[in-house]
Design brief:
Layout lengths: L2 H11 L6 E3 L3 H11 L3 E6 L4 H15 L6 E6 L4 H9 L7 E5 L3 E3 L6 H10 L27 E3 L1 H4 L6 E6 L4 H16 L8 E5 L6 H9 L9 E5 L7 E3 L5 H12 L8 E2 L3 H8 L4 E6 L4 H17 L4 E6 L4 H9 L7 E6 L2 E4 L6 H9 L9
Parallel strand pairs: 1-3, 2-3, 6-8, 7-8, 11-13, 12-13
Antiparallel strand pairs: 2-4, 4-5, 7-9, 9-10, 12-14, 14-15
């Protein structure tokens, strides 16, 4: 039996004082109203909310004053995925928020004193006939066209990030998403040593995700193609968007770039033009032109070092601080550097501009493509 019904059983049949019921799920709430044939007065709250703490004893006292004619229930909105989704569905924007369900939802706008709470509850104590299906989406089982180990979840369950994982927004009935799921499963196997976390999918066909996908349907010119892949990294508050081709190798490289610490010793320092040209005759050299005050340069630094590790001995990585001295100033002027950071590759004394993504994967792949006998990855 559901937990909420266990609480009601204890309260009613064992005569224990139990005045405010705790929320378990939206479905259970409506089942409870039907089973008890009573309205339910709901308090939406958060533990950190000072106004919620002030209201708590008054809400409890009010529940003791209605002679079991109305059920008082509280939901801590951020406690579980179910409570997050419920509060989102209720349009909760601040705390505490009070509503009563009497066969339909009625907002409470009164004063937060015991007498006013009791009067409102008793004025709405009669439960009107209602159909549960009118208030929640009861999902019918969907026969998916392929089998995948990637667990389906709702958008509400992943909206706040949470534990480390890969989140993919897709449509399992489309071939592009089907292929992506297979590649993600392989990527998880390849990256298990440094990313031992699961993947979940937010499906377009799931009606609980309708609000999220509806935004793209009404703004098709802004809609990114499915599948969309995000990575919630350990210790990171914000999911990282993966924008490359969804292949096992590319995604594994992205995870490695995101999680593995850079080795700055692999990046050499510019000495002079003559030595740089000589080195370029031995191997391609990717040169980063930068300034210490440049924010974008600071952001690029770890990715540049990771690119050096990825490319290995086949490519040299050099950085030049343009304003450091007369030699570096003249060199950057000769290279016609107009902004920072600027990346250029020199091979056999010939320069090539780099305009790709500033990820370790893309920089390394670009440099390696100039190595004799190497293929583009």
């Amino acid at each position: 039996m559901k937990a909420i019904f266990g609480v009601i059983f204890i309260c009613i049949f064992i005569a224990v004082s139990c005045d405010v019921v705790s929320f378990t799920s939206e479905s259970d709430l409506f089942d409870l109203a039907l089973k008890e044939n009573k309205s339910i007065f709901v308090k939406h709250f958060e533990q950190w909310c000072g106004h919620c703490k002030a209201l708590a004893p008054k809400f409890l006292e009010a529940s003791n004053s209605v002679d079991d004619e109305v059920i008082f229930l509280e939901v801590e909105c951020s406690k579980t995925n179910e409570s997050k989704e419920f509060c989102q569905n209720q349009g909760v924007r601040g705390y505490p928020t009070l509503k009563i369900f009497e066969g339909e939802w009625v907002d409470y706008q009164g004063a937060r004193d015991v007498d006013t709470l009791v009067k409102f509850a008793l004025d709405h104590k009669t439960l009107k006939a209602f159909n549960k299906k009118d208030f929640i989406t009861i999902e019918e089982p969907v026969e998916e066209p392929i089998e995948t180990s990637i667990k389906p979840v709702t958008f509400a369950q992943v909206q706040s990030g949470g534990d480390p994982k890969i989140v993919v927004f897709g449509d399992i009935f489309e071939k592009a998403s089907q292929k992506a799921y297979s590649e993600i499963e392989t990527a998880l196997e390849l990256s298990a040593e440094f990313f031992p976390y699961p993947a979940v999918r937010v499906e377009k066909y799931n009606k609980k995700n309708a609000e999220f996908f509806a935004h793209w349907e009404t703004n098709p010119e802004q809609a990114p193609p499915l599948p969309m892949v995000f990575v919630v990294a350990p210790g990171s508050p914000n999911p990282q968007r993966y924008g490359g081709p969804v292949t096992a190798k590319r995604l594994t490289d992205f995870l490695e770039d995101l999680l593995i610490e850079p080795d700055y010793s692999l990046v050499g320092e510019f000495e002079n033009d003559k030595k740089l040209i000589a080195l370029s005759k031995q191997k391609p050299v990717l040169v980063k032109h930068f300034e210490q005050w440049c924010g974008h340069c600071k952001a690029l630094k770890p990715h540049f070092a990771k690119a050096a590790a990825r490319a290995g001995d086949d490519v040299a990585f050099i950085e030049v601080e343009c304003s450091k001295d007369d030699t570096t100033k003249k060199f950057c002027q000769k290279q016609k550097v107009k902004g920072y950071p600027t990346l250029k590759l020199i091979v056999d004394g010939k320069w090539h501009d780099y305009s790709g993504a500033r990820t370790a994967q893309e920089m390394a792949d670009f440099a390696l493509s100039f190595v004799k006998g190497k293929q583009d990855l």
